[in-house]
Amino acid sequence: MLSGLSWPMVAALLVAGVLLDLLLGETRRFHPLVGFGNLAAAIERRLNAGAARVPRGALAWALAVLPLTALAAWLCDLAGAAAHAVLLYFCIGLRSLRDHNLPIAAALQRRDLPAARALTGRIVSRDTHDASEADLAKASAESLLENGNDAVFGTLFWFAVAGGPGALLFRLANTLDAMWGYRNQRYLHFGRVAARIDDALNYVPARLTALSYVLLAPGIGGKRTAWRCWRRQAPAWSSPNAGPVMASGAGALGLALGGAARYDGVVEQRPPLGRGVPAAARDIERAWRLVARTTVLWLLLAALSALAVVGARYA
């Protein structure tokens, strides 16, 4: 039992939350995670000053995340199963990944580089103002593979563990890592706790995501390539979770990702990801399909395990 819910109910709510996301997409006027970002920025401005930056960062994380998670748990106890599904809808970002990345592919396919650069600049932190088609396709494909874990599979995992409050906790922690997890003068110490908590929460989901990408790679050869890329390339990445996800995903797609990318005018040479050809416009759609198929796989496994529980109950 989870928050008063049986596993078959949790599996049904997983499907319901994903369907709500695919049908409704992001809220048009106000998204809760945007509001949370504003709250987190206000807390950071107040606490990220003076000495003891690491303890201040830990306090900031607790103030931003714990009251909202507790409130979510109270609302779920009050409103029941429907509240869990609504929370999952607000936390998951499957349709958002499609809506932000497929227009990049469409712009590249019609040779509209200015539009593709502008669209890509909205989803990545690297410079895109003079990026080539290959650079833009690579950035979008990498974003899809990594955020498949952050916005979708990690959220589904923690929903399965702790219901709507678990999904919310994960997404809030992931948002704070995205905001505070930089290794620069401002955030190196203040954001350390946020980065470590996100690493811990993401550890299991990231490896399940990487394994899913391996399983869904085409043919035995594709699966072997994805597995070898994961095992050999992931350790070279500074992020313990992004490495497995992106390396296995790139290998599954037969793409050569990673390598050079420019941030704030400085070219950064990153470790290689995957093996194969450079990314092109059509590979953005292929990366999206891999994320979508992985979502179906996870929901199918949840449904089958729920049926097994029901069957055992009545056996």
UniProtKB/TrEMBL annotation:
GO terms for molecular function: ABC-type vitamin B12 transporter activity; threonine-phosphate decarboxylase activity. It comes from the Bacteria. GO terms for biological process: cobalamin biosynthetic process. The chain crosses the membrane at residues 59-92, 296-314. Pathway: Cofactor biosynthesis; adenosylcobalamin biosynthesis. The keyword Cell membrane applies. It is found in: Cell membrane. Keywords: Cell membrane, Cobalamin biosynthesis, Membrane, Transmembrane, Transmembrane helix. It is a multi-pass membrane protein. GO terms for cellular component: plasma membrane. The keyword Membrane applies. Belongs to the CobD/CbiB family. PANTHER family: COBALAMIN BIOSYNTHESIS PROTEIN CBIB. Converts cobyric acid to cobinamide by the addition of aminopropanol on the F carboxylic group. This is Cobalamin biosynthesis protein CobD. It comes from Pseudoduganella flava.
